[in-house]
Amino acid sequence: MAKIIAIDGPGGAGKGTISRMLAQDLGFHYLDSGALYRLLGLVAIRRKIKTDDRRNLAQLAENMDISFQTMANGQNIVLLEGEDVTDELRTEQTAALASQVAASAEVRAALLVRQQQFARDPGLVADGRDMGTVVFPNAQLKIYLTASIEERARRRYKQLLERGENVSLRALEEQVRLRDERDTNREASPLALATDAVEIDTSDLSVQEVLDTVQNIVILRGFK
To answer: What is the C-alpha separation between 75 and 30, in angstroms, rounded?
Structure first.
């Protein structure tokens, strides 16, 4: 059985960055579960399927032609029907769509098996909102990263400014709050802290400090 590290938490807590760095350090596979929901939201918009059309969304989820590739420079890219859509997945519009389609129990069920197939030797670092509670409940290590709404909005604000996008910090804070509300209150696989997860508040920590903390836990749990 492959070793699995599940890293959950709300958007902007740093789980994507930490998960990628940890997977590279350990030589493990990496699952960005959020990308699957962003991809589904993107396909739904392109095919003019409403985000509350659960039946058609579930069919899309089962049949999406997607792949994840790591380039020679270490960059991870996402392909949709052979098209590189990595940058498109990072927009606020796509993130909002992902949160909406992820509320569907039918969609989550359709994507469950696809996510579990990422668990291969030598191991997997899985990043998401229900990795340790639903997708990989038997993961050998579960980590929950969190941060204040203000700090998570500020991080996103900085990212978008660096891409040349004109955004409002106050509007981002409201988007983060609404996304948290959807994720924690949805009926299907809500965002929750697993009872056996290690919780880390990243609000006042640098990326390196968070990574060091996680790596120390990984060592204590015998992964290295």
So the answer is: 12
pLDDT in tens, 7-66: 999 999 999 999 999 999 999 999 999 899 999 999 999 999 998 899 999 999 998 988
- What is the side-by-side strand order in the sheet with 3-8? 29-32, 123-128, 3-8, 141-146, 198-201
Backbone angles phi, psi at 107, to 5 degrees: -65, -45
**151's tokens:** 């700090």
Question: What is d(CA 189, CA 108) in angstroms, rounded to the nearest whole number?
Answer: 8
The full set of domain ranges for the chain reads 3-208
End-to-end CA distance of the chain: give it in Å, rounded: 17
- Residues with Cβ within 8 Å of 136's Cβ and at least 6 positions away in sequence, in order, are 4, 6, 116, 119, 124, 126
Which of 72, 104, 67, 65 lies closest to 86, judged by CA? 67
User: How far out from the chain centre does Cα 68 lie?
Assistant: 14
Q: Is 3-208 a CATH 3.40.50.300 domain?
A: yes
